[in-house]
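User: Hey, quick favor. My workstation is busy. Could you predict this chain's structure for me?
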Amino acid sequence: MKRLLALGVCLVVGIELLALILHGRRFLLAAAGVALALVLLNVRRYLGRGNEPAAESDYDDLGDSLRRWLATTETTIRWSDSTRADWDRHLRPMLARRYEMTTGQKQSKDAMAYHATGRMLFGAELWEWVNPNNVTRTGDHRPGPGRAALEEILRKLEQI
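Assistant: No problem, here it is.
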């Protein structure tokens, strides 16, 4: 910005000196005005860069984000209909995080209150599918609770 202004002042002074040297005094005012207008237009363009409205997202960007969301949702539904090991590995940590964020309960602060709130919110049956301490370490290949249980858990989290 300082460089632009310094160059502008030099341009105006240079044009005035050139007009005086060439004895074209009748063009002095017009030449200085044109030089000043060029400098002011460049200053305006320089200052206006940060004020331009952000370009709207391309439709491809919006479509890509929608496709990613849809793929994530489909994967989550597949995990809910899969085995207990998949539920424990993928869905239980996500649901436990959402439970902690929604209720503000932290297992590290008060484990008894954490579990009591979970049982009150979800009921004993659904809490067992959200409880982060109920993970089987044996890689259980029995079926998970299914899509209906996931839907019910998410519905209860939204109601808080």
